[in-house]
Amino acid sequence: MSGFQMPITISHAMQYIDSNYYVLPAFQRDFVWEADQIEKLFDSLMRGYPTSSMLFWSVKGDTKTNWNFYKFISYFIKGANNKSVVNELYPTASANDFYAVLDGQQRLTAMRLGLYGSYAYHERNKSWNYSPESFPARRLYLCLSRYGKDDEEMKYIFDFKRDDVTGKADLYTDGAEMWFRVGHIMDVHFIGLNKYIRNNDFGEIGEEILDRLDATIFTDNSITFYLEEEQNPDKAVNIFTRINSGGTALSFSNIVFSLMVANWSAIDAKTEISNLQNLINIKGFEIDKDYIVKVFLYLYNNSVRTEIKSFDKSFCATIEKNWNAIRDCLISVFDLLRTFGLNNYTLTSKNATLPIVYYLYHTHKYSDFVTSVSFKTERATMKQWLMRMLLRRVFGASTDSVLAQTRKAFTSDISKYKIEDTISEFPADKISSNLKVLDTVDDEFLDQLLDLQKDDKYAFSILALLYPNLDYKNNDFHKDHLHPEDRYDELPDSIKAKYPFKVYNSIRNLQMLDANENESKGKKYLKDWVEESTDKSTRRGFLESHLIPDVDLSMTNFESFILKRTELLKEKLKAIL
């Protein structure tokens, strides 16, 4: 019968997880807790503090096979760029009845990691790409030498310690302090706690702490839960949504994403989408669930607004049916963005890519669009359009209305989910026309662009527009100062007062160069570099291709140079924008 059940011990809960009697429904979110949250949870449990009730769903009969369910994780890696821990799919075809955890996953997973597993988080000054050195595995230890001080947050001192330091030892001594591996209590309890204590010298405090740990795991009925018996998946999803929609830890897109995942039947959506995120990550970009949800809506829904009502069974079935094509298209699009020279930092709006995704997907061009010579002109058009959109910051505020307008450039009937036959190439001009904010290119706007600093995330887009013919595909390019950065202090104080370093370090004194050419330039004075690179017959063409004004290029003539270069760049940008 549905209702609150008799509370159980942590030991019993862990046994049920090990036997897959407790599992996770497909719409559950991933584990997100930090290591210190786990440490504080164990301290709270040891102190007998009450924890919130959990919510379980009794899964029986056909419900077991109608949805996907997952096992609890036994280890965790937090924040690695190219590696994430995914819950293993639980095969339910021949499974006995079980409980699905609707609320309580984070706490139960935290207990499991503390008692049986490991937790790896980033080591300072190491790469954010996964390796055992950058993300060393750690196990939870409990200090037996002392209690926490009055001014410390925790009475019982828990700490995740590195395996390569402790050797995974059951007891570890660090200076004057003795540490006990928390998971070892599972063995000690069955050996006999009193016998274990007699065989070791823990002192009075150590014995008290171990006795309390044993009671916390094996005696205290810490796990209280409400059980939902009704075999109604929609009700389970609604319960889950109702519980999580009021909190701040779970975003609305996560809830919507969970609804979609719960409706996929033939594909393990959770694993598939996680794998896609990892693939895109390897390419130098990060995509989150908000972006993926928006892709689905943009491709196959009349409204691009993220709403629960949009993710009905029919819509989710359409996405599942076309998943492989959507996945392959997204991979192709981010390969394309790499050829544009973009990365996660310089791609200042992921939503700006959606018109490209829509076009390549519905024209079925994505499979060889990045490499085929026949699409060279279209790629150039897309690149220029995207850079303009990023500079204009069009996909910032009111994104949904902007996206809706961009889709109208492809078709007058969104419900057909196809592009009109009259469109044979990417309709950059038509999209721009629909977005009426693009009409004005005045000096104020151009000055804002030219004032951007070398390392600003928008600087790449400007320079890529100004220097479109470099090898962006292989990232064989450098941002570089025309007058070298190290030469600024040579300017007279009167000039520096008029043109501070923020002018010297701005687009007005920057160029994009072939990597080899930039290495040969080095820290040479601009005048010397130009003279070494040209003669009378080639000087003019060299200056034009590098967007350098034909003036005296010595440091003493910096003021004339910066004024003429500003004029030159404004003229160029007006023609482009």
Provide an overview of this structure:
With 577 residues, the chain is of the alpha+beta class. The protein has three domains: 3-227, no CATH class; 251-438, no CATH class; 473-576, no CATH class. Helix content is 44%, strand content 11%. It has 26 helices and 15 strands. The strands form three sheets. The protein has a seven-stranded mixed sheet. Strands 5, 8, 9, 10, 11 and 12 form a six-stranded mixed sheet that branches. It is flat and about 95 Å long. The N and C termini lie far apart (67 Å).
Summarize this entry quickly:
The chain has 3 domains: 3-227, no CATH class; 251-438, no CATH class; 473-576, no CATH class. It is built from 26 helices and 15 strands.
Number of helices: 26
Strand order of the largest sheet: 1-13-3-7-2-4-6
Rg from alpha-carbon coordinates: 30 Å
Shape type: flat
Q: Distance between termini?
A: 67 Å
- Which spans have pLDDT < 50 for at least 5 consecutive residues? none
What structural class results from the helix and strand content?
Answer: alpha+beta
Number of DSSP-assigned strands = 15
Q: Which range best describes the helical content: under 10%, 10-25%, 25-40%, 40-55%, 55-70% or over 70%?
A: 40-55%
Task: Report strand %.
Answer: 5-15%
Mean pLDDT: 89
Give the domain tally: 3
Sheet with most strands: 7 strands, mixed
